[in-house]
Amino acid sequence: MQNTLHMEFSEEERKVLFGLARLAIARELAEGRQLRRETPPPPPGPLHAPLGAFVTLKHGGCLRGCIGSVVGDGPLFRTVERMARAAAFEDPRFPPLRGDEFSEIAMEISVMGPITPCPDAQAVEVGRHGLIVRRGMHSGLLLPQVPVEWRWDRETFLGQTCHKAGLPEDCWREPQTQLFWFEACVLHETEGR
Fold first, then answer.
1. Residue 89 and which of 7, 65, 107, 123 are 20 to 30 A apart at CA?
2. Which CATH superfamily does the domain covering 116-182 fall into?
3. pTM recorded for the entire structure
4. Domain residue ranges in the chain
């Protein structure tokens, strides 16, 4: 999958993000919420930018948790810490992560680019764009890597985003449905090791 978002992180910055994410989960497993402590901030730079991020956890190649924030409400490194904890312990689709699973978890961090209205659904590129569908009280989001992993074409991707929102799969064609797109810088834990 080609990453076209003009955002890059150094090897050291990647290690810091994954280290913070793993530490946040490890501390939660060991100490729980009552003793949650903040880690010292990294040196000034891109990790302090107010960017949204999603943290995806996989166990044995299967999704084990994925939670994120589409916009940054604080420095990226703090967002990644919070989203790692949330993906491990608060994703309603899965039971909380157990200590015996932790060492087997593969992690991915998706740093969010700007979210804008999609002017034409036919312009959506699988592997480049993530999608958000909104209609009334319904909303669904799929990251750019999801259709690649599932080998979806554009129409299936659009339909599955509607499905995730709890809407009919063809509702993206209707004018009442809002369609937004974004790009993300997808970091894999094995990169930069």
1. 7
2. Hypothetical protein ph0010; domain 2 (3.30.1490.150)
3. 0.89
4. 11-112, 116-182
